[in-house]
Amino acid sequence: MCGVYKCISRAGAIRWPSFKLDICSNRIKAFHQSRRRSPKLKMHLSFATSITLVSFAAANPLSNRLAKRAAIDDCLRTANVPVDAPNSNDWRADSNPFNQRLKYTPVAIAVPTTVAQVQAAVSCAAKVKVKVNPKSGGHSYASFGLGGEDGHFVVQLDRMNAVTYDSATEIATVQAGARLGRVATALYNNGKRAFSHGTCPGVGVAGHSLHGGFGFSSHTYGLAVDAIVGATVVLADSSVVETSQTENPHIFWALRGAGSNFGIVTSLKFKTFAAPSQVTVFAINLPWTNASAIVQGWSTIQDWLKAEMPKEMNGRILGNRMQTQIQGLYHGTQAQLQTAIQPLLTKLNAQISQQQQYDWMGAFSYYTYGQQVDVSRPYNLVETFYSKSLVTPALPSNVLQNVANYWIQKAMSNNRNWFIIIDLYGGANSAITKVASNATAYAFRDPNNHLFLYEFYDRVNFGSYPSNGFEFLDGWVKSFTDGLTTDQWGMYINYADPTMNRTMAQDVYYRKNLPKLRALKTELDPTELFDYPQAIQPV
């Protein structure tokens, strides 16, 4: 390390008195001599030397990252935890964010293949006092898997991606690094089983399900988080615990909705269902070319969703500059779909513009839009974007008018590649809002206030996202929230918005569950080892 410091000094970035470099050199010489003398002494001096460097760096902020890298590298090497070599192909792949707008440099990247290695990695992070973050699929919109800022220690989990199924219990055990396409494929190939989750095959199962997990089965079967019946997690003290309704139930409650705040989940157990033999994808074109058409159509859809939308129906409204459609998946045949959706078609004076019957995996493939389904490594899909989210009730007429005006006057004049997704989330027949509001840490279960889940997404195909672009989505979200009380809306951390400060983010993501979550954070991780800019804070 002294050589590295010396090179930086020559470059003019850090200038230290020569006696400090001499002391550092002597310590490193003693360390290397100890490595040859005794394995036990090697371990002791290795960590002691690293801690000396960290302590020394505390008075020299510019050197802190290098010192922590030395310390964490020493500890991981001693513990035999596999890592990405800095600037290697693996390092570049594992540190490359899905959202290219938010690039951060980790202090180190561990790539464990066993739970014991995850434990050792967490132990090293605690000893060196560096923040640590699990990274499953790496799809955090805010790059929270990389820490959401420079200098965090990343535990990359995608080498741990096994999927197994127990036919006696109908429970699937899924390692945290598996991606949704791999999970869906493995379960379907093993008894034609499934559980509810999203449609993007490259999304990691852990982050997706631990914070909600909406998809085209959620209205029928609930969110991915609702299928979790057990989880193995490494806590801040590096202990590994099993959690379920009967084992560590308080931790199990917190993991289901806020899992990234309390540890590194290494595997999950999901209750599965028999995949339907026939499902039907469909689309309905909406002529939303002016504000009055939006208000009229939206009002009709929200009334139908609140009271009539069948349990077997799953859908969303997708709008962009080119068109607006209802898209969905009906759990049944084309004939059954036609009967079930006819009341809505009559009210909208519309017809189905596209429909096709598939088996379960055929429908999953349809909504991947050509992506590889069973994907693990390498995974190279990236975009440059800004995104926001909302969860709202049925919109009052004044709010709906403001939203529609914004859509026509502002959104349609934006030439970037934006879209809005309005998920048909709640309603009388939704499995999501039938779950008790206190059953999990996931916040949005109120059948009256949680009817729609929104994703607002604004991206550029080339170059950087413009510095004046943020106001577009900020203004659109404001057109909703200005007419609602704070207890009527929230935001969804799977579409994280890093422009919010921590206080606001905690509130809108977790709402009434936040006090209990903060108390559990105080109990389980009081030093905030598992941390990122919008993480839950201890009391």
From TrEMBL:
<keyword id="KW-0285">Flavoprotein</keyword>
<dbReference type="InterPro" id="IPR012951">
    <property type="entry name" value="BBE"/>
</dbReference>
<comment type="similarity">
    <text>Belongs to the oxygen-dependent FAD-linked oxidoreductase family.</text>
</comment>
<dbReference type="InterPro" id="IPR016169">
    <property type="entry name" value="FAD-bd_PCMH_sub2"/>
</dbReference>
<feature type="domain" description="FAD-binding PCMH-type">
    <location>
        <begin position="102"/>
        <end position="275"/>
    </location>
</feature>
<protein>
    <recommendedName>
        <fullName>FAD-binding PCMH-type domain-containing protein</fullName>
    </recommendedName>
</protein>
<dbReference type="Pfam" id="PF01565">
    <property type="entry name" value="FAD_binding_4"/>
</dbReference>
<dbReference type="InterPro" id="IPR006094">
    <property type="entry name" value="Oxid_FAD_bind_N"/>
</dbReference>
<dbReference type="InterPro" id="IPR050416">
    <property type="entry name" value="FAD-linked_Oxidoreductase"/>
</dbReference>
<keyword id="KW-0560">Oxidoreductase</keyword>
<dbReference type="Pfam" id="PF08031">
    <property type="entry name" value="BBE"/>
</dbReference>
<keyword id="KW-0274">FAD</keyword>
<dbReference type="InterPro" id="IPR016166">
    <property type="entry name" value="FAD-bd_PCMH"/>
</dbReference>
<dbReference type="InterPro" id="IPR036318">
    <property type="entry name" value="FAD-bd_PCMH-like_sf"/>
</dbReference>
